[in-house]
Amino acid sequence: MKLHILGCYAATPSLMGNPTAQVLEIRDHLFLIDCGEGTQVQLRKHRIKFSRINHIFISHLHGDHFFGLPGLVSTFQLLGREKELHIYGPLGIKEVLLMLLKVGNSWTSFRLVFHELEGKDPIEIFKDNKVIVSTIPLSHRIYTNGFLFREKPRERTLNIEAVAQYKIDKAYFKNIKKGKDVLLDNGETISNALLTLDPPKPKSYAYCSDTAYSPGISEWIKGVDVLYHEATFLGTEAHLAAKTKHSTAEEAAKIAKAADVTLLILGHFSIRYKKKEAFIREAVPYFPNVQLAEDGKLVIF
Amino acid sequence: MKLHILGCYAATPSLMGNPTAQVLEIRDHLFLIDCGEGTQVQLRKHRIKFSRINHIFISHLHGDHFFGLPGLVSTFQLLGREKELHIYGPLGIKEVLLMLLKVGNSWTSFRLVFHELEGKDPIEIFKDNKVIVSTIPLSHRIYTNGFLFREKPRERTLNIEAVAQYKIDKAYFKNIKKGKDVLLDNGETISNALLTLDPPKPKSYAYCSDTAYSPGISEWIKGVDVLYHEATFLGTEAHLAAKTKHSTAEEAAKIAKAADVTLLILGHFSIRYKKKEAFIREAVPYFPNVQLAEDGKLVIF
C-alpha cells in the first residue's frame, strides 16, 4: 500500500499547510480519504491521476474535511469524466453536494453514487475481490467515521522449484494457488504445503480523524499495519482536546498500543504548533514506532 | 483605490493559478469580489487582514467564483469574528451556504446578512457616505452580475492660503468644504470658489466576469477608471467563447473602448494558454491601455 498524505492540518487552510486529505493506493485502487479545501491542487502537485480516483470517503462534514469536494467533482466534469464516482459519507452529503451543483446549473454527466452513512456500529461499505473497507465509528462533535482498509488474503504463491521437481502440469496451477492438494495420475497425492509458499500477509490501514480519545476503537483496528490517528493537540492543551472532542498525542499513542499496530502516524495538527517534535516526545513513551504526518509525505508499507 | 488580484484563472484551481477572487480597497473598505477555492490562503499570502472584510460580492454561483466562500466563513468563525458579514450574490446563495454550515453544525456566532440578487437591471446594493456599489447585469450561462464601485465626490479642499488671506475663522471651515460661500460680519460675501480647490476626482472600478460579449454594459460603466473584464479565450477560440458564454480579448477591448475607460485589465484566463502575450496583442488594436491580470498583482489608481 502507498499512503499519500496531501494535507494534515486542522481547522483551516493556511500558508503552513493543507486541511485533511489523503490518497491510499491499494491493489489498483486509488481511494481518496477526506477532501479539505485545496485538495485538487494537492492532487496535481503530487501528480496523482484524477481519473484513477473512483471512491471518495468523507469522515464527517466539517469544512476542513470536505470543502474541497464540490470543486473536485466540478473538475472531474471539466476533465470529461464518464466513469461513475462513489462517495461515502455522513447522511446529508448527497443533499448538500447536489444543491451546490444545482445552484451552478453544473450537473455531472457521469453518475454520482452516494453511500450515506448513519450507523453507530462498524459496517462494511466497500468490497471487491481484493479489498474490504469498513467504517470505524468515532466520537466527535458531529457524526464521524474513520475508515479501515483491509487487503483480502492473496492466493498462495507457487513454489516453482517444488512444482518442477514433482513435474506438475500447468493445468493444476490455478487450483494449487487456491490451496488444493494435487492428485497425480498414478494415484499419489501431493500436499499443497509442499507446492506453495505463504502469500504476503494482507496489509491493512486505519484512518481515525477526527475523534476524542475513544479506547473502544482499538478493538476494531487490532493489528493493523498503519494507523493514522489525529493528534490535534499536545497534552498541555488537553482541556482544549476535551472541549472540542479531539485527541492529544498521548491519547493517540495509547490507542496504537492497545490496538497493537505496527506504525502510528500522527496528524491533524492544530496550526498553533509551529514545531512538531513535541508530538513525538509525547507519544513515544506509550508507543515507540511513531511518525508525524506531513503534507506531501508518502508512506509505503 | 487598490485592487489586489488574488486569482484570475477560469474553471478550476491548478498549479498555474487560482480561480477568481479580488480585494478592492476603497475609502477604508476592503471589499472581497468573488471567492474561488483557495481564496483564504491567497488572503493570508498577501497579508490582507481578514477582519477588515465586511462585504463580499459574489458574481455568480459557478464553483470557480464561490467554492472558497464556505471555508472563508468558517475561518471567520474560528478567528472569533463578532462583526456582521454582508454577502451579496444571486438568489440561492443563502440557502446553500446555510446548508453547508448546518451539516457541519457550524453556525456562526456573528451575523450573516445576505443580500440576494435576482434583478435584470442595474441596482444600487451598497451605499454609505463614501462609496456606492451597483450591479452590472451580465450575460452568462447562469444568472450573473458584475459590480460597479464608485467613490462619492469628496468635499471641496480648503485653500489654506486663501483662507488665511481673508482671515476666515475656523468655525466656517465645515461649511466651506461643503461648498458654501462665507458671509463675513462686515456684510461682505466671499465666494466659495475663492476659498477652495476642486477635490480629487472620484474614482471608479468596474468588475465584469463572467460574461459573453455584451455591448450594452458599456453604457453602465461609462468613463470608469479601471475595468476588469474577463477574456477567457483568444479570438482563435471564439467558437468556445460563444458556446460557453465567455468573452475574447478583442471583445473585452471593444467594451473598454465603447465605455471610454482609462485602464482595461484582462483576466479569467482559460488555463489552456500557457503564455499570455497574445491577449495583449489581440486587445491593443481596439484599446491600447490594457494590462493582464496576474495572481498577486496589485493595481493602484
Helical/strand content category of chain A: alpha/beta
Q: Return the CATH architecture of the largest domain in chain A.
A: 4-Layer Sandwich
Cα-based radius of gyration of chain A, to the nearest Å: 22 Å
- Arrangement of strands in the largest sheet of chain A: 6-5-4-3-2-1-18
Helix-strand pattern of chain A: EEEHEHHEHEEEEEHHEEHEEHEHHEHEE
Please provide a written account of the structure:
The structure is a homodimer of 301-residue chains. With 301 residues, chain A is of the alpha/beta class. Chain A folds into 2 domains: 2-154 and 200-300, Metallo-beta-lactamase, Chain A (4-Layer Sandwich); 157-197, no CATH class. Helix content of chain A is 25%, strand content 28%. Chain A is built from 11 helices and 18 strands. Chain A has helices spanning 39-45, 63-66, 69-78, 93-103, 160-165, 173-177, 192-195, 217-220, 238-244, 249-259, 277-283; strands spanning 2-7, 21-26, 29-35, 53-57, 85-90, 112-117, 124-127, 131-138, 144-151, 157-158, 182-183, 189-190, 196-197, 204-208, 226-230, 263-267, 290-292, 298-300. In chain A, the strands form 4 sheets. A 7-stranded mixed β-sheet of chain A has the order 6-5-4-3-2-1-18. In chain A, strands 7-8-9-14-15-16-17 form a 7-stranded mixed β-sheet, with helices on one face. In chain A, strands 10-13 form a two-stranded antiparallel sheet. In chain A, helix 10 crosses helix 11. The radius of gyration of chain A is 22 Å and the shape is globular. The N and C termini of chain A lie close together (5 Å). Chain A binds chain B through residues 11-15, 37-38, 40-41, 44-45, 60-64, 67-68, 70-71, 74-75, 78, 90, 92-93, 95-96, 99-100, 103-106, 141-142, and chain B through 11-15, 37-38, 40-41, 44-45, 60-64, 67-68, 70-71, 74-75, 78, 90, 92-93, 95-96, 99-100, 103-106, 141-142.
